[in-house]
Amino acid sequence: MSMIIDHRFDHILDAETRRRAWIDTLSSFFVTQIDPEAIVPTTAFHRYHHMNQLVFGEIDASPQTIERTPALVAAQNIDHVVLRLYTSGRTNISIAGQAHEITQESFVTFDLSQPILSETKGMTGLNLAIPRRLLEGRVGDVSAWHGQILPSASSPITKLLADHFRNVSACLRTATPAQMSHIVPATTALCNALFLSEADSAYNHAAVTNIAIRQFIDENLATIDVEILMARFALSRTPLYKLFEADGGVYAYIRDRRLSRAMQVLSRSSAGRRPMIARLAYECGFENERVFSRAFRRKYGLNPSEINASSLPLTDREHASLLLSWMKDL
Predict the structure, then answer these.
(1) 274 with 308: CB under 8 angstroms?
(2) pTM
(3) What value does the mean pLDDT take over residues 111-123?
(4) CA 184 to chain CA mean position, Å
(5) Half-sphere exposure (CA, 13 Å, Cβ side) for 61?
């Protein structure tokens, strides 16, 4: 597995093709909009380094609007926190309709289990994606930090962490595995120190429970039902159903995840190694092949038997990017 994902666009000469390519490379995590008149420069890039337990990113972006929509959050079940150091540019971020402007070098916390919208006139920055468990064991839940802006000069810890981010960026491509084994815990410790700098951090139990339920569903698609969820998470029907109102209900959400899993299996298979449709239906939690095929055709407009690796252009939205797979495996 490559340990670096490097999205560059200087080889794409046509401006419209370059704009679409930029949007496509962000589509695993964001719904992206760029004014048709805006030009994505050939110097724009975003790059990611796999650090075993962390993912470090560097970005130079042109004017754009990116959004983690409620639907995208629900579909992905990513339980991670991203710390972004904005090193230049002007950006607005909006949470639940409340907008805030970043006008100086600052850290912003993004809880990927919550929606957010960001609009920039152009920016550069450094990102660190951290599994929530590496933070919560020391500082408690960090959901309340979602969207908070911390100027890098606001405290000794933020100054130290900003310098550390720059140093990590400079050394990652040449660091040995032995050196990396020290860089990762040092980086995690500094991030925990950042969150400890505030005494009060409310525990967002609903958000944490929501993401845990969705992860549990994905892990048990063949057997999951509402009764199991109620027993596993000590919830009655009313609060459980409320968590899935935006998804059309808990039954609709489970069916959609089962269909997505089936699409992933089929679209990764060659014609000679296709799984039996009846067996796939059972493994994805459908009662029989007929019910599965009807639901699959309703969602995708194709029969399961028509999908294989050659169908990839039709199913890009069903595939996590390499970066998304990194995040889920941290």
Answers:
(1) yes
(2) 0.68
(3) 93
(4) 20
(5) 31
